[in-house]
Amino acid sequence: MSRLLEVKDVGKTYGSVIALRDVSTVVNAGEVTCVLGDNGAGKSTLIKILAGVHQHDRGEFLVEGEPVKFASPREALDRGIATVYQDLAVVPLMSVWRNFFLGSEPTVGFGPFRALDRKKGRETTKKALSDMGIDLRDVEQPVGTLSGGERQCVAIARAVYFGAKVLILDEPTAALGVKQAGVVLKYVAQARDRGLGVVLITHNPHHAYPVADRFLLLKRGVSLGAYEKSEIDLAELTRQMAGGAELEALEHELRAAESPS
Question: What residues does the ABC transporter domain cover (predicted)?
């Protein structure tokens, strides 16, 4: 199996604040690695290192076996690492197909006579979306008229079309209802089945478990554990996410305090 990304004991500090410490995981082609944790767990810091926004201070970051320190998101993108952030980089009033290309629009003509190739843009977008199983009636409609789930799916299809090997998804289901979240997870599985390595960032184990192949649990910048799917079930994953051990210790303390001496 092709190993696309690997982080080994990666750490990051901002001044005296330790944002990430000794975190390790892998991302394989055709698999989903899910990073779970509440707010402040270090998920955003890990994404930013993988996406080339920030550089790690300690440990190793390997892309297809080669140690890297990206100087910019462009460098990460050039290595096939595409990141879809929670706030989606879309222009709501612009059409779906223009948002699909955004900065890489097809053109006809040369030099000062170059013009947008609208027909090719529309057809390419419709086919790319259709290949991912997304059926949009009209790619000329403003992207702002789509549901949150549909917008996420357009962003996923865009990354796949432009040759991403690794797709990093930042809380893609966070603001969605149950049905819309299910739609997005279906397209996450589609991207995985097309051979991409997917990094799914979420705080919801119920969204993570159906599609993930491995889990990395973070809390306050430290790994609580890394598991293959065969090593952990949904109940235990949820218990760890909810701080099960801490809750049990608290319950024990409360019982001890309540019991007559």
Answer: 5-245
